[in-house]
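Mods, move this if it's the wrong board.
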Amino acid sequence: VKDFVNCEELNDDMLKAIKELQARASGPRKSSRGGWHSPETPELSSHPAFKKFSEQLYASFNEGAPRLGQVPHTKFVLTNLWAIVSPKGASNLRHHHHCVTISGVYYVQVDKSSSPLIFHDPRAAKTFSEESSNSSEFAHAVAFNAAPGRLILFPSWLEHSVPENESDTERVAVSFNFLKLSGPPVPDHVGDNDSLFNAATTR
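Not the wrong board. Structure tokens:
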């Protein structure tokens, strides 16, 4: 989990692009219930605001991937990127992302009442345990709070969901997938943008 710093202008530009696309295009339903899932077209990724975001995302990803068990300097490619707009009452069903390696979410617009991202323990036997605990080591699910400019990366196989949005503010997020490729390693200079990691780790 990392918080982008000085991202207000970037978020405003991304939000404008998302709302413009939402006004004229319907999207697939997928895991979203009551919200809008953007169509997976090049329109968002080719927008200047999203090109800027992608550059910062790659820099953040190359530093964060080793923490998820990936070998440093392994080559990855951003396979797809989409936006989800969740008004009050909208949610996302429990799901995972198949045929990719690492997934993530970036929060463009949320407030303190916005729904968290819930990760579910994939071990089926754990669901039969009657024990309850506040410790993430023993919990069946762990919640990560949303915040503007917050980036969360996770293994694509890890099931996750989003409860109903109880806020009057639309919860606007951008999700994405990375796929690990074979081939030459990523150059050492990629990911040297230290400014993205000045904020403290929240977890």
